[in-house]
Q: What sequence folds into this?
């Protein structure tokens, strides 16, 4: 049942995703939680020790470039080559959009699901190459992962609190229903890039998911 719900959510995200435009970011559901994780990693990357800011100095590219997923550091723009060979795309349950040349897939680490990615430039799993760009990342907490953080950003990790987010980046640009998500935006003309922190699975104020779209 959980897997079916995750697959349906991935499909909805793909149909809502239109590239870097306003529609893509205008509000993919704050409550969508497509894929839970069961991840472990052995990479040596460490989150930066950059000091916490007391004011809102959010910058989308800076945020992405200081993000780690299972110890793997991201760089902007995000490409599949960012991820080591321990990360694999799951063809089962993937949803393609041939018209927009995009595909939404679950991604595993060492056979364990970590979340949902949307790839652009191909509508098939077979077409994903190291140079394929990832335009959306939705990663969720997994209590079974103990070796490294599933996600980390400037000292912030899953299981953190809402106050940790606002202390780091100031007040969000928008807050989801029931305070379930804090969203920080970067707008360039017609495009909106989103960095969203979600809460609720672990407790009312507990940080449990990250959503990046550009």
A:
């Amino acid at each position: 049942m959980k897997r079916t719900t995750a697959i349906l959510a991935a499909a909805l995200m793909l149909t809502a995703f239109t590239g870097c435009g306003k529609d893509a970011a205008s509000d993919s559901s704050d409550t969508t939680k497509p894929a839970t994780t069961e991840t472990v990693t052995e990479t040596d990357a460490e989150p930066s020790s950059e000091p916490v800011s007391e004011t809102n100095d959010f910058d989308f590219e800076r945020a992405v470039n200081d993000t780690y997923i299972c110890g793997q550091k991201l760089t902007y723009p995000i490409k599949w080559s960012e991820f080591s060979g321990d990360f694999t795309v799951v063809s089962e349950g993937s949803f393609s959009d041939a018209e927009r040349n995009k595909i939404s897939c679950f991604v595993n680490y060492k056979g364990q699901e970590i979340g949902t990615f949307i790839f652009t430039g191909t509508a098939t799993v077979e077409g994903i190459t190291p140079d394929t760009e990832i335009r959306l990342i939705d990663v969720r907490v997994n209590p079974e992962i103990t070796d490294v953080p599933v996600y980390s950003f400037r000292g912030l990790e899953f299981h953190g609190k809402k106050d940790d987010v606002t202390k780091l980046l100031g007040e969000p640009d928008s807050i989801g229903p029931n305070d379930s998500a804090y969203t920080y935006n970067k707008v360039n003309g017609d495009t909106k890039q989103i960095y969203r922190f979600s809460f609720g699975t672990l407790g009312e104020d507990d940080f449990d998911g990250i959503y990046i779209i550009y």
Summary: Confidence is low (pLDDT under 50) at residues 18-55.
